[in-house]
Amino acid sequence: MTKLSLLLASAALAASLSPPAQAQQPPASWRMSAKEVPVVDYTINADHSITFTLAAPDANSAALMFGEPQMGRSLPMSKGADGRWVATVPPVEPDIYEYSVKLDGADLHPSILEVPSNPPAFWQVQDVAHGSVNMHSYYSKVQGRMRGVHVYVPAQYYAQPKRHFPVLYLWAGRYETEWVRTGYANVIADNLIASGKAQPMIIVMGNNTTGPLASPAFKNAEVIEQELKAELMPFIESHYRTINDRAHRATAGLSFGGGTALIVGLRNLDRFGAVAEFGTGVFGTSKPGEGSASYLTYNPDTITPDLYAKLKAPATSLKPFYMSVGKDDARKPNQIAAYEDFKKHGIDPVFQIVPGDHEYKAFRASLADLLPRLFR
Question: Keywords, A to Z (predicted)?
Fold first, then answer.
């Protein structure tokens, strides 16, 4: 597995930022001991069906939630005489799947399983040189709060201590943890770099939130843009051996994070030589009532004035300008329309329709397709 190293700020800094506080515990009657929490077991059968079981003899109802939360399916679980609840998911393709159990209306902690492929898929851990994922915290004056960032460094980073590396700033929908936990970005990068298909690179996975609630795409991107330029990029470039020019700096993102990458990247073409989005809603959505008002009408001038001219100018053109969307994603018609609009104005983005819906299946495939195209 990829080594996970944790880099902590100094105790003095932490003390200066956070006043001491006594942790408050709920009353004992509210707490559940570890042995009382049911454990969800699963078996991947020969036909790739999956049988889930858990022992909860005192529970009155149980349902299995299988797939990503926004589009997963719910299967009722049957209770046996031994008090064990059982449900079987019909055969599925090799992939990564999220699951959780709703027990008497309460959600048990969700988890992830892999249905492996033979030969191994691009997202499977393989016997190759592995990089590291470092976790940092820093204080953002722009947002007035602590922020987290995950940084992937390739195996070559520590093996070649004098070498400097290009950087991809990669955004998820919200949190810095998502691209590692569900997106397997580090595993995908390991495999592609080891095979020689992708250049060794640093991948910076920042936090894409600007508050406890989601903001409209453009408002969110404006705050992230300020933080990125004033704080995150200087932090990365002072802590890592980066190549600090636009030809060796890229940004990409999925869904809401794709909007961030698109808006911030296209507004800062002097800093980014490649920009990619996977399934952003900035171009609109075909699901009635979905998304915020900023998603409903696409206007390139809301990103940056004279966008088409800037993308055609040699000094600010992109290598690549990348767009992708899942073949079953409701955003596909709007993505196609935006792509055709770019083409009409003399810009030729890489445009890929990948398997899947608006889900990590599509986002992982998009990342695997993008990485070999960067820093060439």
Answer: Signal
* Beta carbons within 8 Å of 30's beta carbon, 6+ residues apart: none
- Residue 214, Cβ neighbours under 10 Å: how many? 15
First vs last C-alpha separation in the chain: 28
Q: What is the pLDDT of residue 117?
A: 95
Domain boundaries, the chain: 37-115, 132-373
Q: Which CATH architecture has domain 132-373?
A: 3-Layer(aba) Sandwich (3.40)
Task: Report which DSSP code applies to 279.
Answer: S
Residue type, 196: G
How many angstroms separate the CA atoms of 278 and 301, rounded? 21
Separation between Cα atoms, residue 308 and residue 249, nearest integer Å: 21
Alpha-carbon distance of 375 to 273, in angstroms, equals 9
Hey, CA dihedral for 300, 319, 335, 70, is it positive or negative?
A: negative
Residues in the chain, how many? 376
The angle formed by the CA atoms of residues 57, 59 and 63, to the nearest 5 degrees, is 110
Q: What are the tokens at 70?
A: 């926004």
Q: What is the pLDDT of residues 101-155, one digit of tens each?
A: 999 988 887 899 999 999 999 999 999 999 999 999 999 999 999 999 999 999 9
List, for residues 47-72, the tens digit of each pLDDT value.
Answer: 999 999 999 999 999 999 998 766 66
- The CATH class given to the 37-115 domain equals mainly beta
Do the Cβ atoms of 241 and 217 come closer than 8 Å? no
Q: Any idea what DSSP says for residue 287?
A: S
Distance separating alpha carbons of residues 261 and 253, to the nearest angstrom: 5
CA distance 89 to 50: 5
Pairwise CA distance, residues 176 & 147, whole Å: 9
| Residue 281 per-residue DSSP state | S
The set of residues, in sequence order, having a beta carbon less than 8 Å from that of 65 and lying 6+ positions away, is 72, 73, 74, 99, 100, 101, 102, 107, 110
Amino acid 20: pLDDT: 39
Residue type, 345: H
Those residues with Cβ within 8 angstroms of residue 175's Cβ, 6 or more apart along the chain or in another chain: 148, 207, 208, 209
Q: Cα separation of 38 and 56, whole Å? A: 6
